Amino acid sequence: MSNTFNVCGLTIERGQKLRTFLPVPDTNVQIPITIINGKENGQTLLITSGIHGGEYPGIAATMELGKEIDPADIHGLLILIHPVNIQGFWARREFIVPEDGKNLNRVFPGTPMGTLADKTAYLISSNFFSIADYYVDVHSGDIHESLHPYVYYPGACKPEVEKKSKSIAKVLDMEYMVRSLAKGGAYNYAATTDLPSILIERGGAGLCLHEDIEAYKNDLLNIMRKLALFDKPVKPRHHHPRDVENIIYLESLETGCWLHHMHSGDFVEEGQVLGRITDVFGETLTTYYAEQTGVVLYVCPALSSPKGTILIAYGRYAEEDED
How far apart are CA 300 and CA 250, in angstroms? Predict the structure, then answer.
């Protein structure tokens, strides 16, 4: 690695930290970015937070790490973009970029000729994916999602990319991980370009709790230790992620009021009532039952449930592997 790092017109010398704004081309939007060029050579880790602007703990964690980490303490290059969807963040919007109504995570790799969401995705995918050795996309349950901490790693990519991705997922202090076969989303797209990537889920429901922020910081620091950005061993964890498979994302069949019977992290038996949808007079329209035995990863805690809302996501334990 050269002593001088250049990206998007920004220059950072070895042993320096840059905290500035990254302009989205052909817009008036600027995204906060922190780049830490370590005193010693090493790998490049890219971390994004706030692709969904209402997912707060991960945003706060990346902000704080960008402030706290000293370039003298790390080997390699650390790039933190926080939050990516700055417009959605200030508008307190769930999922979407307010200017165009698009879910930013669904438009990767983006295009320079599209709307703000498309241009933002293109800015990141075209300038940062190619220079990173690993990529971590930091999420939380959105404003209408309550979740139990878990991590996705990509499965629709080369086996060696999946293996490297899973290796960093396994150092997180959480109980569950999910092998994703989807090709959409920032981290899944990145994996198809041969960049080992994961998406972490921790916190949610519009809350920004101190304990979630600290847990997120510990997760990210452990990834940095795993990748030797810090000259320290991975810290012991209380939990080690276990694979959960066959995830059922239950969508509401009609618009109504959602009354959930289960909470994130609960265990559910096949045939158990998950919750029900009522009309605005409290009359039950649909009762939802579990199709399989498993663990609840997240649940919609909101009463308002437009048709198509994901009400609950749950999956079953996979067979233990040895890698």
Answer: 10
